[in-house]
Amino acid sequence: MSTQTISPSDFTTKIACTVKPGSKILNSTLGANKVTETHLPNPFNISVKKDQNFPIFYFSFNVYIDANNTSPLTFMVNKSSTEFCLEYDHSEETPDYVYEYTITASYNCNTLAVNDQITLYLMDTDPITSSGKKTTVQPST
What we know:
Blueprint: E1 11-15, E2 17-26, E3 44-50, E4 56-66, E5 74-78, E6 83-88, E7 97-108, E8 117-125, E9 128-136, E10 138-139
């Protein structure tokens, strides 16, 4: 994915989400996906599905977050509903341990459709650091 600069002001609407912490993992075992003060790994295991009968989209994805994080995780969308962001305030030190969080949410939107591409970011708000991954909206089954 090409580098792109984003900021918290790009994401204007909060989306209610469920945040479930999973396993506590030794950060150094993640190899290239290790969380550092300058690198946040991309969201992974991304699923974005559109309800067959309504303009509702269901999100599910995983992220690695510092196990010592105490800031809230906030899921947001930009004005065009093509970029989504999970933001939090990551400490400036490389963590020893991370949690693998599973994030789920539903989003009501009339402008997105099946096969549209969206970008999902994980963003540290201070200092602003981000990583993102493009994905395609799938039909629900």
